[in-house]
Structure formats: structure tokens, C-alpha cells
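Reviewer comment 2.1 asked that we show a complete input and output for one of the modelled complexes. We chose the zinc ion case, as it is the one discussed in the main text.
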Amino acid sequence: MITIYSDAHALHDGKAELHDGKLVSSFEMPRRAELVLARVKEVGLGPVSPPKIFGLDPVRRVHAPDYVAFLETAWDEWVAEHGEHDALPFTWIGPGMRRVVPDHIDGKLGYYSFDAGTPITAGTFRAIRSAADVALTGAELIVRGERAAFALTRPPGHHAHRACYGGYCFFNNAAVAAQALRDAGADRVAVLDIDYHHGNGTQDIFYSRGDVLFVSLHADPVQEYPYYLGFSDETGEGAGEGANANYPLPFGTGFHTWRAALDDALARIAAFRVDALVVSLGVDTYKGDPISRFRLDTADYPLIGAALAGAGLPTLFVMEGGYAVEAIGVNAVGVLQGFADVA
Ligand code: FKS
Ligand code: ZN
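Response of the prediction step:
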């Protein structure tokens, strides 16, 4: 299996996030991707290639032009106002307030975001542009007939909406890739999100579309971030009715329960008859994850990969979360090895 990787991800290196009422060191750090890459090489998963440059047009297929333009200049606007430390929002649009784009950078940050855990740094824009290129390069490999590819994206993407960032995510790499697959001729595509957190951004981007099925297994939003989306009654709207499926699972969920949900999700994907599958691959379901509360073990990840291969679909893996850095490589690459062993 080919891995797409660029070290441009390291240009995004946030210092701190608001966590449990304190500013703490960012959980989402360059080392995460470096350790996954090291494991890819260690086990000989396959070749590692740099991304092609696709530019921002394919990004604007799923993100609003004004949002992309905001991200491009946000750091410079912030520095002009506050100096060269990470940009974090501190205020948001509450119910009863108005949605008008402010001129001031502090107002813009709140306008285009939904949490205070997602710093913008000097290199953020270059890193997120590169991550989108990594995902698009993976999608192109699938279009050209590869059975599978691994887009080793960082920062992650699945919390990013059409015009809103949060949850460490700015461009929705999986959504950009799914749209690219559609644009290259796939009639129907599925995005299966197995990160611990609900992929609220991906769900919202495709919610009223019948051509992209979104299926997600995640911690129940009544208990866990992102709290305000990811419930089981969210089944899509309009042309997208029936093309969205959520499997919220409680704190403490172990592999037996998680695997039953996966089997149900895969049956749904089979019934939807798609041409390609995009997997939002998070390994923060791991029992040792510092910010998550599922109980999956390292030995479970190859079994997940094997189950995914059983779907028999051209499959693009897009990296999302996972914060137990000592285990992120073994767990993420374990999924890919489990897939490759069966496919
Ligand atoms: C605060 C805990 C919640 C935000 C968690 C973000 C998770 C991000 C992710 C992604 F894949 F996008 F990286 N903090 N006390 O893992 O879903
Ligand atoms: Zn996550």
C-alpha cells in the first residue's frame, strides 16, 4: 500500500489548547505523523510518496471561498494585532446574535470556528494546504486503479465544516478526497469515520447529498466532544435522506461492542453500492489514549483493517486522530497491515 506524506505538516505546531479550563500543551503535534511514518517504514508497508500540488480549487469544492481566504490571511492579521504567538478565538456567535463577518481578527476567529482547542500558527496555512494535497494525491491513486492508499494527513480534518474550523481541523481532508473521487467519475462514495470523535464537519458537508454516504462510529455526543452533532437520529436531509448514519457508543466501549457497530456500518455501505470508500482513520479509540474513553487494544486494529478489506472496495485511508503517541504508529499501521493482508 502506498503512503502519501509531506513533512510540511510540521509547519503547523500549536503550542497550547484550552483543555479542562487550562491552557495545556497541544495534544495534536507533529510527532504524531512522524511516528506513523516511522512505523510505515519499519514494517515495510510499501512505498512512501510526496503529494502532488493540486492547489486550492479542489479544496473550494467543499469549503466556502471566504473561509479559505480567511485561513490564508488569519495569521498575518493576528500578528499585526497581537504579535507572533498562536491565535486562539475567545468568543463565538451565541443564539440571538447576528452572523456578520467582523473586520477585527478576534471577531473573525470566532466567526469561523467552534472551539478554543485549535490554534492557528505561522505555518498553519502551508500545512493544511499540504494535507489537502496529500489526501488528493491518495484519491488520484484510487482513481488510477489502486486498491488502497494511505494519506498520512496532518493536521486532521473531520471536524472542519464548509466554513468553520475546530477540533484541530481546518480543511476537511477526507471530504476533499471524497469530492475529488466524485469529480473523477465515481457515482457514489462512502466516508466511514472510525475516529473516536464524531466527524461533524464531514457529516455536515454532505448532509443534504445523496451521492456521498457518511457513516460514523464515535463516542456518544451526550457525553463527549463535539457534543452538538453525531446523534443516531441524524439520517440526512432532502436528497441526502438515508445517506447519513451515526453509531454513538458509550464511554468504556470495548472491541466487542465497537466491532458489532462496524459490521452494521459495513452492511449499510454495501447496501448503498458505492464505487469507493474513504476511511477517516483515527486511533484515539485506543484504551491508552489520553483524551478518549474507549477501550480498544493494539491487537484489535489489524482486525479492523481486515474487516474493512472485506468490503471489497477501492479504499483511501485518511489519517485523523490518535494521541497516545507511543502507540499511534503501531495502531494506525496495524489497521493498514490488517487490510493489506486480506486485500
Ligand atoms: C477537551 C477535550 C476535547 C478536542 C478533541 C478534538 C479531537 C480531534 C480528533 C481529530 F481526528 F480531528 F484529530 N478536545 N477537554 O481526534 O477528532
Ligand atoms: Zn478524534
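Residues 195-197, 282, 284, 320-321 surround zinc ion (ligand 2) (CB under 6 Å). We note this here for comparison with the apo prediction described in Section 3.2.
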